[in-house]
Amino acid sequence: MKPSRECKEAASLIKEYRGSIVAFTGAGASAEAGIPTFRGKDGLWNRYRPEELATPYAFATNPRRVWEWYKWRMSIIAKAQPTMAHKVLANWERDGILMGVVTQNVDGLHQRAGSFKVIELHGSIWRVRCTSCGIRRDLGFGNIPKEDIPRCDECGNILRPDVVWFQEPVPLDQFQRAEELFSEAKVILVIGTSGVVMPAALLPINAAREGKILIEVNPEETNLSNLARVRIREPAGKAFEHLARLVEEDLT
Ligand code: OAD
Fold this sequence. Notes:
252 residues; alpha/beta; 10 helices
């Protein structure tokens, strides 16, 4: 299939602003890898209640249930492969087109595709943190804890997934790194996010206010759509297949 007019427009902006581009990704960027998104028809928050699974209170009252749910998600992610979108973003970083990725995803697929500069606003499902001494440990992609409720090697207390839950702040250092990266960018690729979760969504919203160019890749209309100069209404994998070809055609 031929690339759409929007893809062509996006590709010419990407070529023009190469080196000053940042990607902002959400669950839709991993949807084609078979990882469920949160909202929408088949979204996790349609099937599960976030207050029972993704809040500090839920974990304090029933850590076993929360861990069970996270281990189920880990088992889905462990089988997933990076999509075309992940791969193209990693190639573009290597080639100096993209400055880096700011993601709301916890799945680690950007790094798995080869991206180096990845700012994880909502933590990582492949890292644990002690609820008592605070120590963090990387599990490594695909390594799912065997215990029902994993415990800290240092102090023996309960470990939790090192992700951001509802009612918790986004890690300040990550948010500041993301703001710095955004401040240097001229174009923001907004890929597969509904743009409703704060403060993450403030990054593209403020960028648009400052006159930066937003390119949205999402099959659906979102909260951020009216801020975007170009809206590619396609699944990210398909859009990036076209974009990679269009961008690389001229650069080689
Ligand atoms: P959402 O589930 O809110 O939104 C996913 C977006 O991806 C929707 O706008 C879909 O239209 C779009 N989408 C679906 N398939 C796609 C595809 N193949 N290609 C491109 N886009 C596609 O996910 P997020 O915006 O990431 O937070 O949600 C933000 C945060 O809400 C998550 O990080 C999580 C959740 O609660 C925490 O866990 C703190």
